Amino acid sequence: MALPRTRLLDRKVVAEGTMAFSFEKPPGFEYTAGQFADYTLLDPAETDAEGDTRGFSLTSAPYEPRLMATTRLRDTAFKRVLRNLPIGAELALDAPYGSFTLHHNPARPAVFLTGGIGITPVRSISLQAAHDRTAHKIIVLYSNKRPEDAAFLDELRALDETDKDFTLVATMTQPESSRLGWDGETGHVDTPMLSRYVHDLTGPVYYLSGPASMVSAMRGVLTAAGVDADDIRTEEFTGY
């Protein structure tokens, strides 16, 4: 069976070296916030050993009218073609996949420990939860080197101000190199920082998303704090 097609509708820079691509949502297409999709270029101008298909988190929330994929602009054949595609160009879409989705029990808070491009499924989950007015308490600890590198930072700050059940804690590990300045948290997420915002560390369900090294480090922090392995969900981002 042929895969459904989608069309590129828009692209925009959402952080230094990071671009979001908006695509047409095929009729009847459904997914759960936090899932991902495989996009395949059709007759690309160039290709390489990594092939013409990439998986990207669905950065968009299901209620939004378009699909969104967000990626670091690494210098690969796929991404060179993607960032130069004409508006209206078609791609094949294979989706949805993945189980990095919000748990069902709203009595347990959801705590997201995310870094860099790992924010993409978190945006989807957080916006959909606000739209659906779920009873979940959501806390997002979002780590980047500088605010210039933090995709969707302003959007998540706005959600923090308007949704009483959503808390954003942004932290920068190299704030001194920022042209914008920074007066928020600094340094990597560790047990003391986490404890300032999560009073019972064993109470929530945790979601770790970002580079593999960051996910591994955060798992170590949680395990040392006594968090059960069944309460830790992960999504590793490689090749970004």
Automatic annotation (TrEMBL):
<protein>
    <submittedName>
        <fullName>FAD-dependent oxidoreductase</fullName>
    </submittedName>
</protein>
<feature type="domain" description="FAD-binding FR-type">
    <location>
        <begin position="1"/>
        <end position="103"/>
    </location>
</feature>
<dbReference type="InterPro" id="IPR017938">
    <property type="entry name" value="Riboflavin_synthase-like_b-brl"/>
</dbReference>
<dbReference type="InterPro" id="IPR017927">
    <property type="entry name" value="FAD-bd_FR_type"/>
</dbReference>
<dbReference type="InterPro" id="IPR001433">
    <property type="entry name" value="OxRdtase_FAD/NAD-bd"/>
</dbReference>
<dbReference type="Pfam" id="PF00175">
    <property type="entry name" value="NAD_binding_1"/>
</dbReference>
<dbReference type="InterPro" id="IPR050415">
    <property type="entry name" value="MRET"/>
</dbReference>
<dbReference type="GO" id="GO:0016491">
    <property type="term" value="F:oxidoreductase activity"/>
</dbReference>
<dbReference type="InterPro" id="IPR039261">
    <property type="entry name" value="FNR_nucleotide-bd"/>
</dbReference>
